[in-house]
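Input sequence (229 aa), recorded before submission:
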Amino acid sequence: MPMLAIFYCAIAVGGPFLALAYYHQLLYSVLSPVYLSLSLFLLINALICTWEMTLFISRKLIKKQYDELRKKYGKDKLPSPLFLFDHVAFTDAVSMQWWSWVWSTYSLLDPSYSDQTTFGFFVDVGNGFLTFLPTLHLLASLTFDLPAPLNISPRILGLVNACFFWQELEGTVLYFSSFFLNDRQRGKSAASIAVVIIANGIWVAGPALGLYCCWEMVQSNTLDVVRLS
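Predicted structure, token format:
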């Protein structure tokens, strides 16, 4: 039975989040707000990574969809309702191709995502392919004591993932700078600009929290920042 696309997103993130929160409390007898916040960001990032892979894999389809949407809605107006409120069959929801609508729709606010020559296109494609596995490894490491060779010291874990979070934070700040310095907000509604700010603001707050956690891991060589606080 088809469900709203946003329900699939909620299941993909919310299901693992609740399971991890349960096991974290079971293992460490505490529900750390730091752990909950960081694990939620990492799960969202893992989902978005799959969409960012789609950005590259389905780039020609995205350009075609964007051209059709632009003819129908104009350059600066989002469709109503958004694709997230479309009814989607399960077979489509688990395919990468259907989620090309993420980028063809967002391209109405920023056409760089339907143009493979732009910085915005490549910074997100890079994030998708390069941070998916590190995201899952960090999430598992913060929750469980992994077996060798996946189990590395908290200090090394912090150093490696500080680079990961810094790359995400830097990429988001540069994207924001490019978006506003090139006046891409001009002519857009307040709601459309809010979509841009909120969608990208997650990748400022999340990596900033990640950098803080990595600093604590490097300083203490423990995972106390996410397991005891």
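Checked by second reader. The first helix runs from residue 5 to 28.
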